[in-house]
Write a structure and sequence with these properties.
mainly alpha; 2 strands; about 10% strand; elongated
Length: about 70
């Protein structure tokens, strides 16, 4: 019979492994983008365009200033 603490440890380490794998996959697929939300509720995502790049850099500077 498996001891309860061993069962919980195995279960938690399995979840941690899955979470780590998810974050690694997410990091590889992540690309910078900027999303513009308009007052009427619509939104536009600007990914690999000049406008998107400029907007992303401006937003990154604002975030750095706020820290």
């Amino acid at each position: 019979m498996i001891k309860p603490r061993r069962f919980i440890l195995d279960r938690l380490s399995g979840y941690a492994d899955e979470a780590g794998a998810f974050l690694r996959r997410r990091r590889l697929a992540r690309r910078p983008f900027a999303r513009i939300n308009y007052e009427d509720g619509s939104s536009v995502a600007l990914e690999e365009t000049e406008q998107g790049r400029a907007l992303f850099l401006a937003a990154a500077r604002l975030i750095d200033i706020a820290r």
